[in-house]
Amino acid sequence: MILTRIRPLAEADLIERTRNYRSEPGQQIGQRFFDTAVDALHTIEKMPGIGSTRLGDLCDVPGLRSLRITGFPCGWFYFHRDDYIDVVRLLSYAQDLPNLLAEIDES
Fold first, then answer.
1. Whole-number pLDDT of residue 39
2. Looking at the domain assignment, is residue 63 inside a domain?
3. Higher pLDDT among residues 107 and 97, named by residue
4. Quick check: is 57 in a domain?
5. How many angstroms separate the CA atoms of 92 and 1, rounded?
6. Short-list 80, 82, 37, 38, CA closest to 56
7. Residue 68: CB partners within 8 Å, gap ≥ 6?
8. What's the domain count of the chain?
C-alpha cells in the first residue's frame, strides 16, 4: 500500500461533512458517511489510478483525480505522486468546483 498524505483542508472537509450528515439526516447517516469516506481512501491507497481525471481536466488542474464516495454526492480529490497519494480535498459535486479546484496548490 502506498503512503497517503491528507492535507489539512481535506481533513477539515471530512470533519465538516461528517458533522453535517450527523446533524441533518442523523447520527447513523453521519457514521455511514465517515466509514464510506475512509473506505474510499483505502481504495485509493490500493489502486491510486482508480480516480477519474475528468474533473481535473475540465477545471484545468492537470493530474488531479477524483473518486466518488459511494452513496453520497461528493468525492475525494487527489494527486497520484511517484511515492505517495496527495489528498487535497473532499468536496460536494454541488459546490463551485471550478473555483475551489483552481485554488489547489499542486505542489
1. 97
2. yes
3. 97
4. yes
5. 27
6. 80
7. 40, 74, 75, 93
8. 1
